[in-house]
Amino acid sequence: MTSSDSQTPFYITTAISYPNGVPHIGHAYEAIATDAMARFKRLDGYDVFFMTGTDEHGLKMQQSADKEGITAKELADRNSAAFQQMSRDLNISHDRFIRTTDKDHYAAAQAIWKRMEEKGDIYLSKYAGWYSVRDEAYYTDDETEVREDGIRYSKETDTEVTWTEEESYFFRLSAYQDKLLALYEAQPTFAAPQSKFNEVISFVKGGLEDLSISRTTFDWGVPVPGNPEHVMYVWVDALTNYLTGVGFPDTESESFQKYWPADVHVIGKDISRFHAIFWPAFLMSADLELPKRVMIHGFLHNKGVKMSKSLGNVVAPKEWADQYGLDSVRFFLLREVPFGGDGSYSHEAVVGRMNSDLANNLGNLAQRSLSMVAKNCGAAVPQPGEFTDEDKAILAAAGELLEISRKAYDVQDFHGALEATWKVLGDTNAYFAEQAPWVLRKTDVERMNTVLYVTLEVLRIVAILIQPVMPDSAAKLLTVLGQDDAAARRFSAIGTPLVPGTPLPAPAPIFPKYEEPAE
Ligand code: ME8
């Protein structure tokens, strides 16, 4: 048996983004959070499959392409490349970047369709309603209103709607109301956070109508099996990406057997209904297992104001990473905003986190302790004497961080994990100031060695645990702590304390203060 055979599989996905434009900070936020989760599980010994990608079909793509005078495929190619570049810029560790124009995806989308059809859940009829191109969704009369400008809008999403009639295939969503409610009851963490899950539940309780799942007014999509006049409604095709990535329709394949059902789909709050209602209904109809969890995050707003192209406040993720450093941005996003709620960002908020949490609490502690060790302990991990109660308390608090972080990551509470970690760093800073090893240097060298050892040991544990959030900076910190081996960086190494005498390289500052550029 190879080591990967014995590892527990863990399959995690982001939503797949519409490449009708270039990525913004909201996309970056979702990618970074999901990446942190994937990295955490890898470091914790899981066999992780992490997928992200682009959702390339549908009327919105076709219309954006028409505006530019190019084909939808050309637009998708260009912008999908921009999303792939974002992944590289942000150090996203996905195992596959799926595009819904990939050949294997057409096969998967058609296969799930056929399964739902064989179940008797798909029928041909006619659709008429208010259609929003932006949302790729129909609305009823009640869900729309004519505003001052004389244009009719969807009340919920503020997007323009037009009256559309077409022959359409329907999915018998109405038949799944009770089954969905039973699912929510049996699996109270199927979707989170609870407040957003509650919205889903009350929507389903309000009654479900059958869903129009094909279009005839354009052809940029996956053809409906047996009736190529129709293309699949983009959401049928899009949601199926999660199956394609692990080998569907070959349900006997090694990857499907191993990774399906997905452990977590990470998505934003605007698409919770698609993931927590339509998706499990499609899967039930197709006799496939359901994902274990849909984690719904909030939206990021620029200084509390909604991002939009017309306001000119859309932030390009790469610009941010260039300005502050990638790991500072990754840290900021996950530390600042409790995952599941909405968040706001501003230059001041990022700089605040960089300077206080990173440069002061972590960087300074590392720099001060490591330079003392370099000067006074022969550039090697010092030999501690007997531990006092203070030493033991600090070491115990750091030792508990692994379990605390596991519990937090299991519910995607990145903010909670980081908060607990920084609490220990705060306490360690206080300990360091109180113990004053620079004074002990002249009065009690053995005690100085012990204090420095304890401090380095806390830093080692913290460095291991923050790798998912700040992979590069944590790696640098582990290097200056003499922890270069991959094995020493896994979570399984947390319980093995620093070995006195381990040689340490010259310390280098890792978390610089942010300096405002000169005018
Ligand atoms: O919805 N803050 O694609 P998308 C945080 N193709 N997250 C945000 C955000 C913001 N300001 N804006 C968008 C789609 N997102 C579909 C998904 S999945 C089978 C198909 C999130 O490009 C959004 O909630 O509009 C979604 O999870 C992701 O970014 C992609 O959004």
From TrEMBL:
Ranges for domain Methionyl-tRNA synthetase anticodon-binding: 381-516
Principal EC category: ligase
Residue span of motif 'KMSKS' region: 306-310
GO CC, one annotated term: cytoplasm
Subcellular location: Cytoplasm
Protein family (similarity comment): Belongs to the class-I aminoacyl-tRNA synthetase family. MetG type 2B subfamily.
Name by which UniProt lists this protein: Methionine--tRNA ligase
Source species taxonomy: Bacteria, Bacillati, Actinomycetota, Actinomycetes, Micrococcales
